[in-house]
Amino acid sequence: MSEHHHKETFVTKYIFSFDHKMISKQFLVTGMIMGVIGVLMSLLFRLQIAWPEQSFSIIEAFLPERFQSEAGVMKPDIYLALVTIHGTIMVFFVLTAGLSGTFSNLLIPLQIGARDMASGFMNCLSYWLFFISCIIMVVSLFVEAGPASAGWTIYPPLSALPQAIPGSGLGMTLWLVSMALFIAQSLIGSLNYIVTIFNLRTKGMKMTRLPLTMWALFITAIIGVVSFPVLLSAALLLIFDRSFGTSFYLSDIFIGGEVLNYQGGSPVLFEHLFWFLGHPEVYIVLLPALGLTSEIISTNSRKPIFGYRAMIGSIMAIAFLSTIVWGHHMFISGMNPFLGSVFTFTTLLIAIPSAVKAFNYITTLWKGNLQFNPAMLFSIGLVSTFITGGLTGIVLGDSALDINVHDTYFVVAHFHLVMGVSAIYGMYAGIYHWFPKMYGRMMNKTLGYVHFWITAVAAYGVFFPMHFIGLAGLPRRYYTNTNFPLFDDLANVNQVMTVFALIGGAAQIVFLVNFFMSIYKGKKASQNPWRATTLEWTTPVEHVHGNWPGEIPEVYRWPYDYSKVDENGEYIFGEDYIMQTVPLKPGEQES
Amino acid sequence: MLALFYFFVAVAFAIGIWQVNKLLSYRTLIKDLKEGKQVSSLEEYDNPFATEKDNDIQGKLFFIFLIGLYLMMGYCLIFLHDIMLPGSASVEGEDYDNLYTISFVLIGVVQFITQALLYFFAYKYRGIKGRKATFFADSHKLELIWTTIPTVVLAVLILYGLSIWNDVTDLEGDDAIVVEVYAKQFAWEARYAGRDNELGRGNVRFIEGANSMGIDLSDAKSADDIPVRELHLPVGKKVVFKFRSQDVLHSAYMPHFTAQMNCVPGMVTEFGFTPKYTTEEMRERKDVQRKVASVNKVRQAKGEEPYEFDYLLLCNKICGPSHYNMQMKIVVESEKDYLIWLNQQKTAKELFKL
């Protein structure tokens, strides 16, 4: 390691920084800004769902006049645009880049004992590509005809033909360009994470001594590298169809009074390519959240995580299975029913490792000494929503049952709980827990409690009743349900859900206030505030380039030696935690 | 409503500022401390870590939350029951209903047990100063149990589910009525196969004037086809639907028959079922009447016409701005009535004067 100290300018320190800690903060803050946009959009369209075609001054204030059919009422295609961009932003920009990008960058070098990422330049490049892709996505919101509005799954032909919906013009082009850059940044980042974890672990840090967070981020990066390129090719072929007249996805189309010159393509091909990423994407979002939570639950229970090896095994099983289940999004797409059978089989298998994980979390709490820091509350909340949301997957993954709930609000409720809310909880838990590592200060505890409880009540209040309107047969992505008397009695439920959504949305302000105030005014953090065992807490509070001022510490044990006692029932080192850097005592068994 | 939202925003801000103020006053306390003034219970006053008191309060809150969660689940299960779809109105849907019930009972049981364990442990083991957590890192026996049980349960669900899936997707059979359902932005059309029970070829390139479905009129099988704007089906006879789309993806969703299939431009997709109840019989069913009553309660309050049950075909794949308004009525009647109705419709030959 060369100790080459050059003077850092403002630009190299805060803007084009190669330092993984700074890059992680850049990812976090950018992700949070995108998150605010995404959540605001959901509140706007929830108003329309609950009180269709009623005028709201907030809609009048936020949407340009050309997006409103009358003052304060959004147009139907703008409703679809909001739904589309909300999905895109939340899934990719917040829960992929904001979550995985932030914590992979922050934690990988710190927890494995490395000076920095394998390639600081690639890391910096990855962030700036992400930044540009965010800018393009935000710019697309201001396009004359409106942003992309074919749903976040952008199925052609709807996404390919501006005649079919106005948003499929320039808005869709910008969407595709933005996503192409996003995929590039994700690939660059993921390769960097994988290489770093493989090659830069400190002495003694065997793979079986890696914290579960590292395992989760590592496997996530691998899934990303395997599946994101497929989305890129799907997007490229769509660009070809849109701009160069090819027929990969398009065939036999009559629209706007004329037959289009496409023949031989199939939208089903796009669905296959899209979901080959789309399904693993769920786990790209969820696994990092589960990884962070593993660490936080163990630390705050003052107990080792239960079944460390089983947890690694189930992460791997989930990752492997996640790449061969994409067809469960397509049971009724017209694909051969036999394929549907295969995908039903592989899909329901995923329930097994998921169940193992849930039970292991619950057992970790058993006979613990739980410290209810805000991070711990969000972690427990995650386990709860992960179970509630995951269970309904048994219905959706079963091809026979999927027929009648496919594309209804039942699906919306399912995935919002299991990947949306759960992953957001994981992200919040991570922020509360590692904030002292990022900013050297503590976040406010009481605000954290307030934030959690309002969010927890609101999240269930929105998404639990949503299952039932789905079982009533209500299709998603309807601008209004008033054209079907069949759905008239769902209006009240929708209004209750919207009220909860507004409460939940407002509660996030508590978090934002807490976050930004604590950066400047928070109480100064100590070196190891949560009395945790992992390596990141051996670095000084003030960030230094290279993470450790002296030698990188050596690792002697696994990361979960909490409350380890000797044969007399006394803590081995007098404390209820033993850091990874502490050598085994003579006669002590490695756990 | 909006006032409520602004109110919550204001409350959120107020809480934030209140806390930050607390933080700031704490700083003055430190200053006081440095200057040697007496300050009591600083630890409790602003500690960023969960204290024993916090653990106690949060643990109890988790328990209350569990009770709240149970109440909400119970409320939804009981009071939202009437709004859900009634039992399936197709013969194939009977098995579907069984599997549906089994799956939901299973989900309910697991949900009630695991949430209880999670929140109860959170409550029971809330941190107390000096208590030692139990070092319990592994138990192959436990892990074997909770790997095996889900595996066995899922194996049963998979096998049962797949057998139903096989039945539902099996469209073989000679005497099934063949109907084409044709989707376009933003309406449905349909075409009966006529006397030969075979549909003439169709392609968007044949769309011209009244021939809005693009029927190939040079195909001999087309002459007896019957284009219609409303679906009538005979009770107790298998119907096989052939779906086509004119422009973008649509999905033909007939929720009461537990039937759905995407309509894909450039290809023909299929689905089939056997209607079990006529529209009239369906209106007499208890669960349908409960649903209708629940709808009419709302309609009455708004002063709207009462709603009468009808089978529906609606679009369930985002297809453009008016996606929300794409429906076709389906009438299920006795075979006699069905034939009478069908004979009143004009065939392609009559319509297009072939």
Summarize the structure.
Chain A is mainly α and 591 residues long.
Describe the 3D structure.
The complex is a heterodimer of chains A (591) and B (354). Chain A is mostly helical. Chain A folds into 3 domains: 14-265, Up-down Bundle (Cytochrome C Oxidase, Chain A), CATH 1.20.210.10; 284-525, Cytochrome C Oxidase, Chain A; 533-591, no CATH class. Chain A is built from 17 helices and 4 strands. Chain A has a two-stranded antiparallel ribbon with strand order 1-2. In chain A, strands 3-4 form a two-stranded antiparallel sheet. Chain A is globular, with a radius of gyration of 24 Å. The two termini of chain A are 33 Å apart. Chain B is α+β, with helices and mostly antiparallel strands. In chain B, the strands form 2 sheets. Chain B has a 5-stranded mixed β-sheet, with no helix packed on it. Chain B has a 5-stranded mixed β-sheet with strand order 4-10-9-6-7, with helices on one face. The radius of gyration of chain B is 31 Å and the shape is elongated. The two termini of chain B are 61 Å apart. The model of chain B has no long low-confidence stretch (mean pLDDT 89). Classes of the chains: A mainly alpha (591), B alpha+beta (354). At the A-B interface, helix 2, helix 4, strand 3, helix 8 and helix 9 of A face helix 1, helix 3, helix 4, helix 5 and strand 7 of B.
